[in-house]
Amino acid sequence: MQLTNKTVVVTGSASGIGKAMVERFIKEGATVIASDRSVEAGQREADAAGARFVAADVSHEKDIQRLIEEVWAREGEIDLFCSNAGIGLGEGPETPDAQWRLIHNVNVMSHVWAARHLLPRMLERGGGYFLNTVSAAGLLTELHSAPYSVTKHAALAFAEWLSIAYGDQGIKVTCLCPEGVWTPMIANLPALQLSAVTPEVLIEAAVQALREERFLVTTHDTTLKGFQLKAQDYDGWIGKMRRLRVKAVGMLQGAAPADKQA
Hints:
Layout: E1 7-11, H1 16-27, E2 31-35, H2 39-49, E3 52-53, H3 61-75, E4 80-83, H4 97-125, E5 128-133, H5 146-166, E6 171-176, H6 190-193, H7 199-212, E7 216-217, H8 221-232, H9 234-252
Parallel strand pairs: 1-2, 1-4, 2-3, 4-5, 5-6, 6-7
């Protein structure tokens, strides 16, 4: 896909990856509709970039439906829907059910709801494109938060299924699976900051993947190496991740890493 003259919707547009998407896609010549639940920040960043802003909270299906219907009514089509909004919270199984439900809605169901309300329109016009922001945690895992890891695994699975089920009908899917990216989400995660890339680096890779209509986008060589190890030696991979978790938790607590093997 070439972005010139395309109509693009970006959720989670007020900061981080979404903000960088909006700015870059406009430079590529797209008509961009930016969306975020934070109205003030979202409107400010959209105005600065030259995008139109529509407020929406992707944890609610009705907001996503309203966003899609509003854009389709005004712009006449949606060529690319960037289901980018995501959150990180919780730790282990003790995380309250309300937080599990919230992160599931934002990190998984927002992708499902976008497809639910866009697929019929896209199929009728003969095609469409979904750019879903997931995480390397979908391929590997996240060392601090079970809810984040679980929902990112699910988000990747849904993107895979969407591409498999509808790829032959003109529906294209690209899935962003970065490791650390300099956004507010990693502000308190020093282990991810060690090798974090800027949002602009990720979006450059995303634009190239869209041009090639390629499914997977990663940002670090370690992602696919870890994924290959996981497939070839699951127990060995789990052992390595245990050691990495000890180091990551130690860094989070301001302590020296306890293991230097990984």
